[in-house]
Here is the input.
Amino acid sequence: MKMTKYKDKVQQSVDFLTKWHGNAPEIAIVLGSGLSDAIPKIQEMKTVHYNEIPGFKNSTVQGHSGDLRIGTVTASLSSGNQKTREIAFLRGRNHAYEGNDPGEVVHNLRSLITWGVKGIILTNAAGCLNTEWELGKMMILTDHINATGMSPLNGEYGIGFGAQFVDMTESYDKKWQSQIKEIAHSSNHIIYDGVYYGVLGAHYETPAEIRMFKTLGASAVGMSTVLETIAARQLGAKVAALSCLTNYGAGLKHVQLSHSEVMDMGTRFASDMANIVLKAAVSLEI
Ligand code: HPA
Here is the structure.
């Protein structure tokens, strides 16, 4: 595959990861801000901070470095069996609203997949567009609408990772969707499904925009995930994505939105989501 400056930087990250850990885990989970602290303590978890990995893009939102953790997770499945798998956790992500260009947004994830990760579970906090749904619950993505005006496959960023004109017909793996729903139901959790509308941010939407997104068939809105899904699909990784519904979209319930309230809701329901995500990560078929 053709080498570009950008691809070279990804390769530097991959070389580091190989030296640091050897072979890549099969599955990686991208943890949105509220979820990063919810993963239970796993013995012998290895940690490296983003700013220690050559080429890795550090996150500016949390005020501290994000980190990559790798650990062996054991989960009890509904069959009663226990399963174990090595999982990589990207704790903290880079958003386009921080001023990152699309190549930077997906650099860390792209490096993990280039290293050898085969399946990705993306998590995020999102505004809920369906007023009959309950906040604090999860929505599994069946599809997305990319309204960021960006693509991680633009120009140099799209070269050297696979086809530049990537098919997005079935971006979120159907079998994984039903497996994750089953996992949620078997632990008595409500899980909705629907289309995620990906915006650039960082402002929240106007009520008119929210009405438009609903009319277009979306059920949740958020400022991440869509670019990561595109990059993962180009590299042929399987993708599942889960939103924690933290608030109703602007104007739907006549309350004003604040970042701290969205974060609080995300943190309150993080352990439910972490449970499902960990079980999924251990048991999904690659
Ligand atoms: N809009 C966009 N992004 C979000 C929202 C929202 O209402 N809630 C959480 N992330």
Remarks:
- The pocket of hypoxanthine is lined by residues 125-127, 199, 204-205, 221-223, 246-247, 249, 257, 262 (CB under 6 Å).
- Strands lie at 27-31, 46-49, 67-76, 82-91, 119-128, 138-146, 191-198, 220-222, 238-248.
- Residues 5-283 form a domain with the Rossmann fold fold (CATH 3.40.50.1580).
